[in-house]
Amino acid sequence: MKHIINSQLICANYNKDYPMIERGEGVYLFDKAGNKYIDVSGCTAAVTHIGHGNEEISKVLYEQSKKLAVHPTHLFYNEELENYLANLCEFAPEGFNHAWTISGGTEAVENAIKIAYQYQKSKGHQRSKVLARWGSYHGNSITVLDVGGLKARRDYYTDLMVGHHHISPCFSYRKEAGMTEEEYEDVLIKEFKTTIEENPEIFCFLAEPIVGAALGAAGPTKNYFKRIKEICKEHDILLIADEVMTGFGRTGANFGINHYGDHADILCCAKGISSGYFPLGAIIIHDRVFDVIKESGHPFYSGQTYSCIPLAAAVGNANLEYIKTHNLVENARLVGNYLKKRLESLKEIECVGDVRGEGLFLGIEFVKDQKSKAIFEPSYLFNKKVEAKAFEEGLVTYACRGTVNLSEGDHMLFAPPLTLTKDEADLIFEGMQNAIKKTYSEFLKG
Ligand SMILES: Cc1ncc(COP(=O)(O)O)c(C=O)c1O
Fold first, then answer.
1. What domains can be seen in the chain, in order of their start residue?
2. Residue 17 has what pLDDT?
3. Which residue is closest in CA terms to ligand 1's atom 4?
4. pLDDT digit string, tens, across residues 92-121
5. Is the CB of 363 within 6 Å of ligand 1?
6. Rg (CA), the chain
7. Is the CB of 109 under 6 A from ligand 1?
8. Which residues are registered as beta bridge partners of 284?
9. Lower CB density within 10 Å: C or N end of the chain?
10. Which residues, 6+ apart, have CB-to-CB distance to 116 below 8 Å?
11. Residue 131 pLDDT more than 70?
12. Pure H helices in 243-327
């Protein structure tokens, strides 16, 4: 049963009918007509770490909202936050001992930029520009769109932007043919270094450890972040890791940066931080950042209505406890490796160009031809066709675009709940195999 979006909603798509969703349970979603789907995307992307319909979390949400949801922050502090931040910092890499909560990922990135800026000002540096990478998404406010590198979302608003700096993404699947990984990394590091040297106004570098929606779970080359961090240190530039998608066990480690040597000064968190049970985001900062700001004697110049409220803290804490007690980080690693291997076997179909990612943060890139990596004509919407076929197979997937020229090339991001079992991974594999085979054979028929 389809439902045409009614006229009260400010539509993201005026022409689309949607089935009405009704409920979720574990990795499953159910629509009003009774159809059952596996949430392979993790709610468009990488949100539902602990799965849907979790009673433990809903009880905490209920009990805490009954007790106290918000309070006058100018006169009180709350124990829920105090406990939560202690647990949050313990879950983070060593040295990340201070945190701040807000309502989501965009705000986390915005606040990370603000705190990096304040760090620089506290040291007497007048610097005003962020360096980030093309082919990255960091959120949807004007500043964060400006900093981000997802053309499809940012281009409409360029008049409103101040023009932060961007460099190439680290995306070895599409490196120049014949180049080794090492040579490719050298080229990227050189670009980074030159950009920093030519633009002394840069005060921080922002990057997703593994790029999510924009590039489909594309991880860095072996020493990329280590070398970036060395240059950052030389110039006293802070490295901000956008862990909005990669945090809280998604990649089979607590945070994405754990895979690459923990080279960051500030972590931005959201999505899996609360698995969607309450709007929550956070920044977690290293002592070396906090100490400079504290020493300046100035408070953190930020704060919004829903910063650091007890209801968000209680839900965040319960979600983190659930992740820990159910070993979901380890499960993401094990079941993620299993699913990745199964998806890799889909390369027997010519249009599956690459399968990548870590843990339960995986991507498939589609190509017309594996050898040349030629893309499908953008107007053919190959990714959307696979998504529609997967939907018929009972899989909710996330079709994305932009691995070539920042706006073309078809890929898909997989980020199911971290509770996924191997049997459920098999169902994802089988559904994807059918969907891709059908879509490709229709393409070949023309
Ligand atoms: C890597 C990354 N950073 C930031 C954001 C923005 O988060 P939010 O949508 O919660 O504002 C997203 C959202 O998809 C994201 O994927």
1. 2-50+327-445 (3.90.1150.10), 56-325 (3.40.640.10)
2. 79
3. 138
4. 999 999 999 999 999 999 999 999 999 999
5. no
6. 22
7. yes
8. 99, 267
9. C
10. 130, 203, 204, 238, 240, 265, 266, 289
11. yes
12. 287-296, 310-325
Q: Closest residue (by CA) to atom 15 of ligand 1?
A: 138
44: closest CA among 112, 140, 126? 140
Q: Is 244 in the pocket of ligand 1 (CB under 6 A)?
A: yes
In this structure, the number of other CB atoms found within 10 A of the CB of residue 202 comes to 21
pTM reported for the whole predicted model? 0.97
Tokens 């969607």, located at residue: 276
pLDDT at residue number 13: 73
Which is it for strands 17-19 and 21-25: parallel, antiparallel or unpaired?
unpaired
- For residues 218 and 210, the answer to whether their CB atoms sit within 8 Å is yes
Query: So what's the pLDDT on residue 9?
Result: 78
Q: Side chain identity at 254, as an amino acid letter?
A: N
- pLDDT of residue 245 exceeding 80, the answer is yes
Identify which of 48, 106, 140 to mutate to test ligand 1's pocket (most ligand atoms within 8 A of the CB): 106
Q: Report the alpha-carbon distance of residue 115 to residue 438 in Å, rounded.
A: 49
Confidence at residue 71, expressed as pLDDT on a 0 to 100 scale: 95
For residue 42, report the phi and psi dihedrals to the nearest 5 degrees: 70, 45
pLDDT in tens, 152-189: 899 999 999 999 999 999 999 999 999 999 999 999 99
pLDDT at 383 over 70: yes
d(Cα 387, Cα 366) in Å, to the nearest integer?
Answer: 12
In the prediction, which pLDDT does 14 show?
73
